[in-house]
Amino acid sequence: MLTTLKRIVQEVNQVIDFDDALSLLALRLKQATNADCCSIYLANYEQQNFHLKATEGLSKSAIGKVTIGFSEGLIGLIGQREEPINIDDARAHPRFKHYPEVKEEKYHAFMGTPIIHQRKVLGVITLQQIERRHFSEEEEAFLVTLAAQIALEIVHAQARGALDLSDATQRNKWQSTLHGVPGSEGIAIGTGYVANRISTLANQALKQVNNPAEERALYRDAVAMTRLEVQDMSDRMQSTLPEDVHAIFDMYLHLLDANSLGHEVEQKIDAGWSAISGLKMVVEQYVQTFQNMNDSYMRERAVDVEDLGNKILGQMLQSQESEQRLPERTILIAEEISASMLAEYPPQSLIGIVSMRGSQNSHAAIMARAMGLPSVMGLTDVPVSMLSDQHLILDGYSGEIIVSPEANILAEYQQLANEELELFEHLQGLSDLPCVSKDACEVKLLINAGLSVELENTHSSDDDGVGLYRTEVPFMMRERFPSEKEQIELYRSMLMVDTSKKITMRTLDVGGDKPLPYLPINEENPFLGWRGIRLTLDHPEIFLVQVRAMLKASLGLSNLKIMLPMITSVNEVDEALRLIRQAFFEVSEESHLSGEVLSMPQIGVMLEVPAVLYQIPQLASRVDFFSIGSNDLTQYLLAVDRNNPRVSDLYDSYHPAVLRALKFIIDQANQLNKPVTLCGEMAGEPGGALLLLGMGYRNLSMNRHNLLKVKWVIRSIGTSEAEALLEEVLNMSTPQEVREALNLKLETLGLGGLVRAGK
Q: What are the angstrom distances between the C-alpha of 195 and each of 318, 331, 353?
């Protein structure tokens, strides 16, 4: 079954036209199951019906014409129930509805299953038999498995169809909308630019062009460069490989011959396809041919053909990228955005970010918010190459990307962008005003720093200090551990920005979604693995060097605070405190000789693992302050990977369980007279600020870009009003209810521009 399944899916994937692919799927499925009829219906949510898109057994003239309502017939029943139906006589079923156009009078046995992707019914696949019989469990399992496999391919195909990639001359004329996850708020209007494009044919979108001579030259130059590369590899490995293994290079050179692979690729180019598209189609056809062979040796050659195709592709992309210039208004697009990637591009050119991976609270989204860049995450159903050089509107509020917008839509979004600029100018007027509520309750606003040295190492009157300095980013940007001297210089520069303000430095917090390139950690579940304080306590030499560097950087100053991440037990705190005292003793002795004064900094822990909620009194007796990492606390409380777009809808810091946990922490801390700062992304959200004020939080740390927004919120409400809102919200059952209540409150307060585009 598995072999047949793979063969069908691979063969269907090779077909360029979506309708042709569905027709082939119906044919192959009919043949594989020995059914008399196979049909495929796709859902149209605008019209609330299923369209017959392909059939082998029903009338071909009905394709594209017959529609079945979501609540009609057996097809509608399958969609409503979201599960297979298997009956021996369809005509006897009470939900059977006769459609004369399809001419199915001779069929009796019927089995159908929904095609579902991320809880959404995309369509229905059916099998029918002339005789009355019940399809077997094996046949039903096969159909269900195929439907699950083909669902993602249908999503991809629909996305390709929406962008009309079959004709590049038309592609820029038609508006289409793609849906991702909102990463950071804002509107960006610019041109898509693909960063660090992954050189694999699988990630390339098919497109047609009207300059075959240029494409042919591009392809031939790439082949010539690949031939030289392969010949060089062959010569270097002549003496180290057995003769039969070395023969692979001869096969490579044979395929590179103009009469072999080249002839077929150039035929595709002459037919109007780009060089990359022609190469993709020919190579994937060869790969499929090899994979379908019975001889195991020949099947393995499919990998070699694919590898050679990617080598040629790499040469073509390298040639194109050398000529490619950064657009004036760049919307950066990548499989996954990283800090090092953002550092490669001039900030004045970047106006937005699209990351195919990640979700609203992934590291990429946090970086985008810190830089004030609108972003959309988790656009998993579209190849990155589709958006290259496209005119885009990026809506960071809704998570939508509009491709090739029509003039009226462009004008509408330009107006919203102008209103956003007006709102930004209004916020600047709050800069020198105190952050106090309407009833004079003071709230300290701190910043989360460490992502952008240029942005954060500047004096500002807006903030009250740094509530979280991410020391791991400099570690991640290097190819080795930074030396003690390098760390001292970095930390000193941060402490000296304003010596009157406290700077809370978090010790190295890597692992999970923040790997070190020179310390690979391969784990099945990295978020529950070797990360944060667990890693540094296992490597005291790393921990001690970092703490020593922090202490030396603070000589003569008194504004350093040290924070420990990922704490789960009192033992971890005790061990960390022992090492900190050891480092303090060592640095004290050295500073005594030089006459410099060293002050013992305040030590705190991050509350981000649910276990610590029940150890707050014990921890309070050992440390000076608490900080809440609401991002990870939410992740662990809800058992949701915040970087996974498939479950991003389940990650919500407004979940009632998260809100009650935050209220529990602040109540406990107040009883113990222990200061608390909330430094997760929730602190920088206008709705989150309302709730946190009502809970009793008086220290909020956020990215600098959101600081004035939160100040505007705090100054627009009294604490009693915020407490009443909190009481109402804590009685709600779902995050959606909470979010709606918060947005309504912000609108009522005249702060609607903080939750949607415009003023």
A: 12, 10, 11
